[in-house]
């Protein structure tokens, strides 16, 4: 436990030190890479609540990532063009306020996760995976056909949205904002895993029948966790869209759902810092190997294969010397 806690602290120190060095060395691109890693880690932390604690293998979490991204894109585009949007006969003004955009992204993602969860959680195993994947594809093709907001070409936002007291156009300040959100969500995740709800959810994951005999409702526990997971992933989508100032249907793609899952597997399923470690490794491989060959995913696949075969607890479990995972590794 102490070894894993020390490793978690080392990961956070590295995540802060590299952008700080890049800022002092005037390397804004490195800061942008670190920001990308932090946002992907946030999305993976959201999925890890469903996967690591609840045992729900969702292959459609890009739905919530995309909803968060499009919430940002649509609101910011209307603020940018000074034209209101029409919704159910109501005229709604756009906004460049991150706080408002985050609230909208979280609420819409949570509502989508509630509806999808009510339908998907009636099944289990491969059927649950396929239903979540089907919802992801539905949203993907809907966004392609949504010509009002760019269709398959996506939607560009030419300004960075604002946060009180910060100049979000400065890379190090936007990184700090994203890192602060990640730290809050990691703290929430750790508290959730140790709370009575988290312990009950873990029990329902291990043995639903035994959980029911002591008066727990596994369906309800999983649904709440699924909604929380979707809301956090939606927030990550809004941050990601603001980072790139661009949204497109690829934010709903099944490939993105797979990438978020891969981040967790590489870092360690059920580990508190597993998603963060996985995101850092993924972005580093993407940057370093992507410059050598466009087929860099081959090396990512090889790394994933090695982790699955020889490090069942992911990189965090391997280094910390605790091979077991699956919800019990929140340290």
Name some characteristics of this structure.
ABC transporter involved in vitamin B12 uptake, BtuC, 3% strand, disordered C terminus, mainly alpha, ABC_transp_permease, cell membrane
Description:
It comes from Candidatus Rhodobacter oscarellae. It is found in: Cell membrane. Keywords: Cell membrane, Membrane, Transmembrane, Transmembrane helix. Its main location: membrane. The chain has a single domain, classed as ABC transporter involved in vitamin B12 uptake, BtuC (Orthogonal Bundle), CATH 1.10.3470. Helix content is 70%, strand content 3%. The protein is built from 13 helices and four strands. The strands form two sheets. It has a two-stranded antiparallel ribbon with strand order 1-2. The chain has a two-stranded antiparallel sheet with strand order 3-4. Strand 1 and strand 2 form a beta hairpin. Helix 1 packs antiparallel against helix 2, helix 2 crosses helix 11 and helix 7 packs across helix 9. The chain is globular and about 55 Å long. The C terminus is likely disordered.
